[in-house]
Amino acid sequence: MPDRHGTLAVTALSRTEWTRACARSTPVLPFTDHRWIALGLAGSPGTRFAPVALHNPDGGTTLVPLCLTPEGARVGCFGYGSLLTPGGEPDTPWPDFGPLAARLGAELGFGELRTLLPPPGVVPALDRAAARWPHVSGPVTYLLDLSRPDPLAAARGSVRTALRRARSEGLGPVPVDTSSVLRLYRETMARNGVPARYGPGLLDALLGASGEPERAAADTVVTAVGRRGVAHAVAVFAVAGPTAYHIMQLTSDEGRSTNAGHLALWTAVDALRERAVATADLGSARSPGQDRFKIRCGAAPVATRLVRWPFTEEGDR
Q1: Neighbouring-strand partners of residue 226
Q2: C-alpha closest to that of 237 among 305, 283, 194
Q3: Rg of the chain over all Cα atoms, to the nearest angstrom
Q4: Is 316 a residue whose pLDDT tops 80?
Q5: CA-wise closest residue to 130 among 118, 144, 142
Q6: Which residues does 273 contact at the CB level (< 8 Å), separation at least 6?
Q7: 114, 200: one domain
Q8: Cβ neighbours of residue 193 under 8 Å, at least 6 residues apart?
Q9: What does pTM read for this prediction?
Q10: pLDDT in tens, 252-302
């Protein structure tokens, strides 16, 4: 029911209702899909998915992939956040963030709501939809321009040398399957001292091996390289329209010595360009050296947009 925070009525949705509602919507980003949300929940213990529908006085409905955390709440829990408008266009304006956050906070008992949006200009439809969402500069991400005739020409010479070496080692595309991705994922996480939270069920869903091959083919690009049929590296991108988002880069110990990771990434770039993707968001630099790797690939550092309630003009804490 409406309250002093505004005239938005709130309806809680089950996961099944969320999935059905999403099927009636055109997403501006891929991360509202239940498969990406499941990955985010697996990687964030203590986070609970609590999707809701907001009903406006004019009869319109907005879907919010709300995730409750010990600190407050987030719009989405994997990649960038976004809302959905069933039956509407992707750039249908979203409700003002302040009243939306206050209404949900009063309904669900949290005092902070935040999300992260891609840099301005990357997804014009999202820029129009979120025009009334105040923001400050968020973490830096790295954008690779795939609209150039030869994106590799903007990369450092060391990258092209790495690709030549990988090919000279006999590496090339190999079939992608869940067992290979799971093996490389566990090996990569162990090498970096990070818990391996994704199991075969999650990766099956990501690859479309558990009943949704068309959906996986529509919003996911996965490339594997290796030799003699054995994968040494995998690159995973989520795709929506002309923009792709780098999700995983997985490499075996042997693949690290043969530059298999470079080859998997640039094999994915070729696949993305075949789908008319113009921008690849390579994500933030979370580990030492990742920033240098992405810059060497020709990506430009650009600030994301942090949206939060209560709003302050200070940067992220």
Answers
A1: 172, 231
A2: 283
A3: 20
A4: no
A5: 118
A6: 146, 151
A7: no
A8: none
A9: 0.92
A10: 999 999 999 999 999 999 999 999 999 999 999 877 788 999 999 999 999
